[in-house]
Amino acid sequence: MARVGSVCLLFSLCLASSGCGSDSEPDDSHEDPAPFGPNDPYDPAVEPAELSSNVTNPLLPMPLGASWVSEADGEDGLERIEVSVTTEARNVWGVDALVVRDTAYLEGVVIEDTRDWFAQDGDGNVWYLGEETAEYENGVPVSTAGSWEAGVDGALPGIVMLAVPTVGTSYRQEYYKGEAEDYATVVSLDESVSVTAGDFEHCVKIRERSVVEPDADEHKYYCEGVGNVLVEEEDGREELVESSLL
User: Fold this and answer.
1) Contact 75, 236 (CB under 8 A)
2) What domains appear along the chain, each with residue ranges and CATH number?
3) Mapped to the 3 state alphabet, what secondary structure does 174-196 carry?
4) Long-range contacts of 18-21 (CB under 8 A, 24+ apart)
5) What's the rounded Cα separation, in Å, for the pair 240 and 61?
6) Coil, strand, or helix at residue 38?
7) Of 4, 7, 2, the residue nearest 230 (C-alpha)
8) Cα–Cα distance, 64 to 73 (Å, whole number)
């Protein structure tokens, strides 16, 4: 799963305004570009030519050079997650994708280093095209499990953030059968959130789960102009402590 989802992504201008930030029934007239159905074949409603590395969705702003830092207290100590939008180039699925680096540290020692690939369509949906990840032990990479790339071995892109989220809508975030099958459901459009980095209003709450890991279950909160500011799991929370966008 792309950890940027736990930092912040894009949305529609309507959602970004306080006037639109309220719970509502799903708009049946809006076509879901990455619909989730556990028994349905997946056919994302997007073509490579429709995608751009210019990610400007208000709920997931990713300008070049932007950065976020989140922290979580766990049983093994303090985990620190540093995310930054790089100037690296990566062609994925025929798209010149935006490369975002995500590095996790446990008590100051790197435990995971990932490069995630994103692009945005003309409607403002932010697509996730895959990741190149490595887990570390004692400073040495020991596993690249979880890596996948759209267009390779049947893998397909998913949505990290919808352009027009509606309560109750479920969508695929990634698709590499049997390896990467996360999906999300919009829970609320008007949440108040307080974290170390500040207080935020009219945030969108997303529930994320996985077909591959049925026990995985977390809620993420996305706020206008910043992105993901909070991740809640049964055994803890990961919250934003600083960002270049604040």
Assistant:
1) no
2) 3-243 (2.40.360)
3) EEECCCECEEEEEEEEEEEEEEC
4) 18/201, 18/202, 20/189, 21/189, 21/190, 21/201, 21/202
5) 15
6) coil
7) 7
8) 29
Angle at CA of residue 106, ends 103 and 107, nearest 5°: 125
| Tokens representing residue 89 in the block | 């180039």
- For residue 62, which of 94, 79, 87 has the smallest C-alpha distance? 87
Read off the pLDDT of residues 184-229 as tens digits, 9 standing for 90 and up.
999 999 999 999 999 999 999 999 999 999 999 999 999 999 999 9
- Please, are residues 206 and 220 in contact by the beta-carbon 8 Å criterion? yes
- Rounded distance between C-alpha atoms, residue 181 and residue 103, angstroms: 22
Return the structure tokens found at 103. Answer: 């590095």
- Name the pTM for this structure: 0.87
